[in-house]
Amino acid sequence: MPMAAAEIESLVKKALPDAEIKLVDTAGDNDHYSIAVTSAQFTGKSRVQQHKMVMDALGGNMGTKLHALAITTKTL
Fold first, then answer.
1. Contact at 8 Å (CB) between 15 and 57?
2. pLDDT tens per residue across all 76 residues of the chain
3. What CATH superfamily classification does 5-74 receive?
4. How far apart, in whole angstroms, are the C-alpha atoms of residue 25 and residue 65?
């Protein structure tokens, strides 16, 4: 069963409470998303570290409940 947008946003917000999130279902199938996350917690971190923080927030759902996620990150 695909992962709902609200669940993705909730998991990211739980890990990054100050995050501004823009989530788009790119294929209309609740399985392919694009997410833009802005957080002060990204300050001083490399782009790879920032993306890992978002992936870690999703737990083990990537590749199981969530098929594809394009990530964009920015600091506040």
1. yes
2. 788 999 999 999 999 999 999 999 999 888 899 999 999 999 999 999 999 999 999 998 988 888 899 999 999 8
3. BolA-like (3.30.300.90)
4. 14
Q: What is the largest CA-CA distance in the chain?
A: 36
What the block records as the tokens of 36 is: 């833009």
The two tokens of residue 12 are 């990211």
- Whether the full predicted model's pTM is greater than 0.90, yes or no, is yes
Number of continuous H segments (helices) and E segments (strands) in the chain:
2, 3
Q: What region does 33 belong to: left with phi over 0, alpha with psi -120 to 50, or beta?
A: beta
